[in-house]
Write a structure and sequence with these properties.
Peptidase_S13, Beta-lactam/transpept-like, six-stranded antiparallel beta sheet
């Protein structure tokens, strides 16, 4: 991934030719995504008439899978499975395929498929720095506006290269600017102001973020909307040393201690709900050095304060007041663009969503294609796409883009129907190459199903595991499959192992 000029170019996303040979299209005349002018009419189409879920054909494969699901611990889960012939749609194995399940991150399959259909693989976000005012010598006076587009990659840790806000500050300094006076305004109106979807656990929002577990969505987003807290042990019994950049992004209440032990830490960094105050508790070992990421409460002010820090770092004096554009009556409508940053194409963004299960990227893309930049508008747009794919929307409930919501529902049958639809879509190669390959490095399948001809999306929440995607049978038949396990009480690794054993039964025997 490289950053060239103001545009981000990711070099690692070439289409994998394996998909073209392994999974032929169902029909020769794949339809392109409808033009924007046609979306309103298409979105109003009625839901298809639901068809009964076919039963599994009897035989040794069905018996083997049934036996896998009845072994110790697996028998305590509620299982939903649909495996179909990708060419004909004929069932290979079915269990509770018409029942609704929590899909967890398999929801991202729905999100990325809809995004590719509605926005197109070449869609790019544009984020701009605009200015309205006057310049006298080396002093700028007026309004600087950070104009957001909902770009999830803006300053993201997933993108290598220069930081766009830091680069803009340095460019202003190189242009001879010594001082800026006035207002720094964040325009985040591409999205509505509701930061979180319905059905999220509060722990997703306030706890230190693993893979940006529950970061706030924002029309102006920066650095994945998380703040990095660098922590280093000090002397035993003393507070660890902490550094937070940018300065002033959050406040910190440090209640942690450095222990006398050389190993073992109980450190926890949480953010108070609806606040940018962090509370650090527990202890760190004497040898501890590390960084934790915590979601910020207000992405817009986080981006603005970061930019002020970079301006000062570049040697520019600032006399700026920071504002969300919604708080202003006069909004500098004629501001001129100084710099414009282009995101990678959507084809590369959906690969991050599906291969790495990036929740933040998924939520940003979800709102991007939604009417009004809202979760409700995105849900309606998703339903419209599913109807065009001949999927009964009574079988699916969409509350977010990532699958963190415990209100999301999907049936295995609907999921394989969507996979089959995308196999005949104009964006089929982009969609399928966005899925993780079995054993593929730096993906959620890196340590699973090695040597199996599988390309799929994982899913996990508390008491939920899922896997859906494409695979090949031993005779070369391409299949689509969806496996959901809900409400289990045993160890999660046992459920994951059972899912993988089911896939192996279908693909390797």
């Amino acid at each position: 991934m490289l950053l060239l000029g103001t545009a981000v170019v990711w070099s690692s996303g070439s289409i994998d030719a394996r998909f073209s040979t392994l999974f032929p299209t169902i029909a020769p005349d794949a339809q392109s995504a409808p033009a924007p002018s046609a979306l309103a009419a298409a979105d109003a189409s009625p839901a298809p008439t639901p068809s009964p879920v076919p039963a599994s054909p009897p035989g040794p494969l069905a018996a083997e899978i049934d036996q896998l699901l009845e072994r110790w611990q697996a028998d305590r889960a509620f299982w939903g499975i649909s495996v179909i012939n990708l060419k004909t749609g004929d069932p290979i194995y079915q269990r509770n395929a018409g029942h609704a399940f929590l899909p967890a991150s398999n929801q991202k399959i729905i999100t990325t498929a809809t995004a590719l259909d509605v926005l197109g693989p070449t869609y790019r976000y544009e984020t701009a720095l605009r200015f309205s005012g006057e310049t006298e010598g080396n002093v700028m006076r007026g309004d600087l506006i950070l104009d957001g587009s909902g770009d999830p990659t803006f300053g993201s840790s997933e993108v290598r290269g220069e930081d766009p806000l830091r680069a803009w500050a340095e460019r202003l300094a190189n242009m001879g600017v010594k001082r800026i006076e006035g207002r720094l305004i964040g325009d985040d109106n591409r999205f509505d102001d509701r930061p979180y979807p319905e059905g999220w656990d509060v722990d997703y929002i306030t706890k230190q973020a693993g893979r940006y577990m529950g970061t706030s969505a924002g029309g102006l987003s920066y650095k994945d909307n998380v703040v990095s807290v660098r922590i280093a042990a000090s002397r035993p019994g003393a507070r660890p040393n902490v550094r937070i950049r940018p300065d002033g992004a959050v406040s910190l209440q440090n209640e942690s201690l450095t222990s006398r032990r050389w190993r073992g830490s109980t450190l926890q960094v949480d953010r108070l709900f609806d606040s940018n105050k962090l509370v650090m508790t527990g202890s760190v070992a004497r040898s501890y050095r590390g960084t934790v990421s915590v979601p910020v409460s207000n992405p817009t002010t986080f981006a603005l304060n970061s930019f002020v820090t970079y301006l000062r770092d570049a040697g520019i004096e600032t006399a700026l007041t920071v504002h969300d554009i919604d708080d202003l009556d006069d909004r500098a409508p004629n501001a001129e663009a100084l710099f414009v940053h282009l995101s990678p194409p959507l084809s590369e963004i959906v690969a991050v969503i599906n291969k790495q299960s990036n929740n933040f990227y998924a939520e940003q893309v979800f709102r991007t294609y939604g009417w009004g930049g809202s979760t409700r508008g995105a849900s309606r747009r998703t339903d419209a796409f599913l109807r065009r794919a001949d999927i009964d929307t009574d079988l699916v409930r969409v509350y977010d883009g990532s699958g963190l919501s415990r209100k999301d529902l999907a049936t295995p049958g609907a999921m394989v129907q969507l996979l089959r639809h995308m196999n005949d879509h104009s964006a089929r190669d982009v969609f399928r190459s966005s899925l993780a390959g079995a054993g593929e490095n730096n993906t959620t399948l890196e340590h699973r199903l090695r040597r199996a001809p599988v390309f799929a999306k994982t899913g996990s929440l508390r008491y939920v595991r899922a896997l859906s995607g494409y695979a090949l049978r031993p005779d070369g038949t391409p299949i689509a499959f969806s496996i959901f396990a809900n409400n289990y009480t045993g160890p999660s690794y046992q459920i994951t192992r059972t899912i993988d054993d089911v896939v192996r039964a279908v693909t390797l025997k």
